[in-house]
# Entry
Amino acid sequence: MEKKTVLVTGGAGFIGSFLCEALLRDGCRVICIDNFSTGHVRNLEPMLRNPDFQFLRLDINEPFDLESFPELEPFQVKFLGIQEIYHLAMPTAVKGYEQFKLQILLANSVGTRHVLDTAVKYKARVLLASAGTVYGARPADSDGVDETELGIVDHLNPRAALNEGKRFAETMFATYADVYGLDAKIARIFRTYGPRMPLFHGHQIQDFVLNVLDGKPLLVMGDAATTTALIYVTDVVDGLLRLMKADKGIGPVNLGSDVNLKISDVAHKIMALAENEVKLEYEPPLAYMIPLGLPNLHKARETLGWIPLVRLDDGLKKTIDYVRANKLLLTNAG
# Structure
């Protein structure tokens, strides 16, 4: 075959849309699935006229048959199949979590089953976008969690559909790999930022940028000592592409930043880059907000040859430029 056909679930989302663009640059045919729960069509606009790109608006929590869609006839899925599947579909809202709770639960179970069954049908390599939250709260005596650590997650807490759901999705991937011999990969993605992250969903960096541009106070969920680690979206996409190409049986791989940052320092950096000083305000974090661990990146470096390349200042500048250029569209769609 002259080109691979790749399926991306959640492809209209923040990370998914950047992944679709990267796959097209690599010469792939891309089938993007999304139901726009937290993704948006504007993230796909640069790709919609590309003959190697096709978007399907559907919910992975419902059964689907790619061969039943007439718009995919040019891709000849029935005869050429699907070679790779990236499973990113899952609502990611923080503030709107209650609205999406059931969808999140189903995406991590029923939806994941539909994706894995599709991988079995086409004997495709398949990759799960899992999350650093599977490790639970940050250990007090740990500099970074590696992939062998089990972590502790409260499976009955208000965020369990996400945190425990990702653990279950990983179990499904491992089980399908055992039973069907699938080449199934697991990426544990840590806190990511950049353009196209939705506004008003509780993602602090994007909301910080908008408030600075509007001259409004920045609300930090925590205190002046609260920390985070931030990885730019294109670095995550590079890691996903490298992991998909890696040897079968590699096991889970952390993708994130291992640099600990004070959120207040990040807020001041955004103010400096946007050239607008505003007030910082603090309030207690929500009950389910736990301090996440920093990833140990040894495995990603050694097995994938991957390291984060985008400096924080550069990533924040790109994010600010994006929000500034699209502010009217973004706020009207809030």
User: Anything to note?
Assistant: The first strand starts at residue 5 and ends at 9. The mean pLDDT is 91. The chain is about 35% helix and 15% strand. The first helix runs from residue 14 to 25.
